[in-house]
Amino acid sequence: MLEMARVQLRELNNVTIQKADCENSSFPSGRFDSVLMANLIHVIKNPSNALQESYRVLKTGGLLLAVDYTGYSMNFFEKMKLSIRYLKQLGIPPRHVRSKLSPDKFTSLMKSAGFKVDDVQIIGNKTKALYLKCRKN
Description:
By secondary structure, the chain is of the alpha+beta class. 31% of the residues lie in helices and 28% in strands. It has one domain: 3-Layer(aba) Sandwich (Rossmann fold). It has four helices and four strands. It starts with a helix and ends with a strand.
């Protein structure tokens, strides 16, 4: 993924591609204008740690965009199809995976880390995701 990002974004001089620990990075506080989290919150053991780290590295007023899978509001058959596809491709998920993250729970996680939530939506037709836009106070 990192190599693909390097290729796709090679023309952008202000973008650096780097692997980092989302719960304890080496970046200085207040370094970034924005943070993007894609399909992360539902799979990590302690999402609060990652959100606190994102808050730390954002500038005041900085933007956090998060998009994350959810089974919330999906019908039974769509959940079953998605589960079978997941099992075939990745095997049994860890016990801490949050497959039914609701908009309220997602918002609560962000507010607990200190963020001001601007927008939260359920997106997608059959497979659902939560989209959240928030800012560092």
